[in-house]
Amino acid sequence: MSGTTAQRRDITAAANQRRFRDLMSSFPTGVAVVTSVDAEGAPRGMTCSSLTSVTLEPPTLLVCLRRGSATLAAVNTCGSFAVNLLHADGQHTAELFAGPDPDRFARVYWRRSPAGLPHLTDDSIAVADCRVAGLLDVGDHTVVLGQVGVISRSDGTPLLYGLRRFAAWPHQ
Ligand SMILES: Cc1cc2nc3c(=O)[nH]c(=O)nc-3n(C[C@H](O)[C@H](O)[C@H](O)COP(=O)(O)O)c2cc1C
Questions:
Q1: Partner of 43 for a Cys bridge, out of 78, 118, 140, 150, CB 3.0 to 4.6 A?
Q2: Going by CA atoms, what residue is nearest to atom 24 of ligand 1?
Q3: Cα 28 to the center of its chain, rounded Å
Q4: What is the domain extent for residue 35?
Q5: Ligand 1, closest atom to CA 48?
Q6: Do the domain assignments include residue 125?
Q7: 77 DSSP assignment
Q8: Is residue 4 part of a domain?
Q9: For residue 134, what are the CA distances in angstroms to 15, 20, 56, 130, 171?
C-alpha cells in the first residue's frame, strides 16, 4: 500500500474540508466588514460572512474570526467592534478587506463613530456597534459574541455571497 498513515490522514482531512466548503457555499449570506481598533489606535477590519443573530434579549450577534487575525487581536484589545453590513455595490470593499493590501482603510471612506469604532459609511446599509460579550476558541477560529449597542441604517439593498461568488439582491 502506498503512502504513510499520516499522508492518508492529510488526504482525508483535505477531502473533508473540501466537502465542508462545498456545503457552506450552498448557504448564501450577507457580507459584513468587522472593524475595531488595535493597541496603537489604528483601525483594523476584515470581511466576514459568519455573522449570525444569537439572542434578542439582550440583542446579541456572533462572528467567527480566524485565529491569528489582526482584526481579532484588535477586537480582543479594544473589547468592542463594529459590524458594517455591505450594500449591493460593496464587492470591491469586501475583496479589499479579504485581500493582502496592508492599507485597507486608505482605500475606503470611513469615519470613527462616537464610540471610536471605524464605520465604513459609504459602503454599508447598516452599522452596529457591539461590545464583546464572550469569546470561544473553536479549532482555527474564535467565536466572538457581541452585544449590540448603537445601530445606524441607510438606504439600499445588501451584498450577498454564495456559490463562491458575490451577488446583488434581486430587484423587485
Ligand atoms: C465573502 C467572504 C467572507 C469571509 N468571511 C470570513 C469569516 O466569517 N471569518 C473569517 O475569519 N474570515 C472570513 N473571510 C476571510 C477574511 O476576510 C480574510 O482572511 C482576511 O484577510 C482576514 O483579515 P485579517 O488578516 O486582517 O484578519 C471571508 C472572506 C470573504 C471574501
A1: 118
A2: 69
A3: 14
A4: 30-168
A5: 5
A6: yes
A7: H
A8: no
A9: 32, 26, 16, 11, 38
Q: Is residue 157 part of a domain?
A: yes
pLDDT in tens, 89-147: 999 999 999 999 989 999 999 999 999 999 999 999 999 999 999 999 999 999 999 99
CATH of the domain at 105: 2.30.110.10
Structure-block grid coordinates of residue 148: 449590540
Instruction: Give residue 30 CA to ligand 1 midpoint distance, Å.
Output: 13
Shortest-distance atom of ligand 1 to CA 99? 21
Out of 20, 25, 49, give the residue to mutate to test ligand 1, the one with the largest number of ligand atoms within 8 Å of its CB: 49
Give the burial string for 66-91 (b: 16+ CB within 10 Å, else e).
eeebebbbbbbebebbbbbbbbbebb
Q: Which three cell numbers stand for residue 18?
A: 473540501
Q: 146 CA distance to ligand 1 centroid (A)?
A: 18
Please report the pLDDT score of residue 2 as a whole number.
Answer: 61
Cell of 142: 474564535
| Number of domains into which the chain is organized | 1
Whether 129 is covered by a domain: the verdict is yes
19-74, pLDDT tens digit by residue? 999 999 999 999 999 999 999 999 999 999 999 999 999 999 999 999 999 999 99
Residue at 39: amino acid letter: A
